[in-house]
Amino acid sequence: LDVDSVWKYVRCDRTPGAWEKLIHGEADIIFVAEPSAEQKASARAQGVDLHFYPIAREAFVFVTHKDNPLTQLSEKQIRDIYSGRVNNWLEVGGNDARIYPYQRPKGSGSQTIMLAAVMGEDKLRKPLETESVHDMIGLLRNVANYQNSANALGYTFRYYATQLHHSPDLRLLAVNGIEPTIENIRNGKYPYTIDV
C-alpha cells in the first residue's frame, strides 16, 4: 500500500474515542495509553477481552511556565497539589502565589495515568471549570499562556510537550530531582516512566 491509500484504514482519535471504537468492534487495534477502570468495565460488559502489548516507553511529565522558579517537585508534593492539600507555590518552595493545577477529563489517557500512577489512594481535587481542559494541546497552551503565567501547573506525556506541541514558554519539571530525559526514561530512573 502507498501512504495515501493507508489513510482509508487508519483513524486518529482521542484516547476515550479509540477505546470506545475498539470495545464496540469499530477498530481492531489501537495505540493508546492504558484504559481507565471505566473503559475496562465497559469492555467486560461487552464481552471484549483486551490484550495489551507495550511497544514504547514514555514519560508522564509535569509542566509549568518557564517563569516559575521551581524546577522540580517531589511525588508527594504533586499528590498534595492535585488532592487540594497544597494550594500555594510557597508551600512547595516557590513564590507566594496560588497554584492553578490543570486537569484532563475523566477517561482521557493522561487522566487515567494521573489517577493510576501518580495519585494512588489520594483523590483528585475537583477542578475549577477553567482548570479542566478537553484536549492535550489545550492543556499545554493554557499552562504556557495562563494569565497568571508562572502559577499554572499541568501534566502530559513527554512526547506532547517536546515534539507535538513544543513551546518555549513551558518547563518540564524534574520529579524527586530526576529530569524526564530520554536516558532517564530508557533506564527507568524517572519516577513516572510508562510502557505504552
UniProtKB/TrEMBL annotation:
Source organism, top-level taxon: Bacteria
> A Pfam family in this protein?
PBP_like_2
Q: Which SUPFAM superfamilies match?
A: Periplasmic binding protein-like II
Q: Which UniProt keywords apply?
A: Signal
Domain annotation PBP: ranges: 17-192
The name of this protein is Phosphate ABC transporter substrate-binding protein
